[in-house]
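User: Could you go from structure to sequence for me? I need the amino acid at each position, not a summary. Structure tokens:
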């Protein structure tokens, strides 16, 4: 475990929208204001955190999108590069990790006017050596209102923030884990909205074709279909009887509840039958 301090600067924007300002600072802005709210832009605020090399997720910093109506000069999608500087307590110099944010400036008069921010690549190309092992930083999502999501939706006419959640992971390997079980659904009787959340915290993509998710009871097995790849940093959910495309679209298709309301264990097994991960949930977890 190491205490680190983070900070960040925005270093590039491609292709370039009009009226860009703030390159190589902690706040970058763009566009010609279409109203009284000013330009749109990103900022990053660092913090002091405890970082572990055991897959524990930490908040790397806070990402903010100042989202106002602008004229974009015909450039509505572009990439914005962020360099996060991390000062490990035992170092005299900062370590730099770079990430790319993909921005979609959606039409304000469309059915989904919220702008979208995504991460096309979640693994930093830079690494750090800890106890002889090489590690890279992997962003596993945007945390807002207590929920970690893959893509950040930013409502118009305001300042919208989310914590950037990341892990330090060994270079060159996937690391697929269960991070949560929503075992008490809100849908009466069937609890169709129950789900298990699975994340690849590793630096490499994982082929999870044929992997099994189960609760150790008959009829509670879900098998991932052929050609299923869990990208590095990607977060998915397997629902009891709902389909959510933004979480991968996976569902047991069960007309009754799968997960014990009082608690139990969720198991993840690979295609060869080897145990990958188990996750105890609820008050009666073993």
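Assistant: Here is the amino acid at each position, in order:
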């Amino acid at each position: 475990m190491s205490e680190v301090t983070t900070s960040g600067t925005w270093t590039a924007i491609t292709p370039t929208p009009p009226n860009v300002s703030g390159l190589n600072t902690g706040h970058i802005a763009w566009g010609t204001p279409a109203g009284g709210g000013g330009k749109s832009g990103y900022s990053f605020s660092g913090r002091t955190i405890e970082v572990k090399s055991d897959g524990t997720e930490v908040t790397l910093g806070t990402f903010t999108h100042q989202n106002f109506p602008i004229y974009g000069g015909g450039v509505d999608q572009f990439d914005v590069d962020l360099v996060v500087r991390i000062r490990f307590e035992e170092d005299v110099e900062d370590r730099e990790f770079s990430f790319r944010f993909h921005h979609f400036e959606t039409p304000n008069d469309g059915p989904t006017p919220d702008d979208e921010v995504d991460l096309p690549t979640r693994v930093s190309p830079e690494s750090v050596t800890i106890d002889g092992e090489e590690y890279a930083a992997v962003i596993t999502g945007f945390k807002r209102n207590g929920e970690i999501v893959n893509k950040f939706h930013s409502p118009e006419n305001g300042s919208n923030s989310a914590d950037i959640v990341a892990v330090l992971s060994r270079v060159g390997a996937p690391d697929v884990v269960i991070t949560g079980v929503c075992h008490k659904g809100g849908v009466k009787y069937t609890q169709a909205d129950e789900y298990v959340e699975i994340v690849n915290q590793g630096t490499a993509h994982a082929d999870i074709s044929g992997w099994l998710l189960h609760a150790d009871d008959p009829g509670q097995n879900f098998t991932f279909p052929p050609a299923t790849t869990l990208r590095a940093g990607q977060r998915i959910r397997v629902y009891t009887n709902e389909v959510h495309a933004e979480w991968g679209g996976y569902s047991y298709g069960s007309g009754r509840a799968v997960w014990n309301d009082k608690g139990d264990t969720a198991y993840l097994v690979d295609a060869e039958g080897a145990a990958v991960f188990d996750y105890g949930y609820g008050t009666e977890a073993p």
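One structural detail worth keeping in mind: The longest strand covers residues 2-14.
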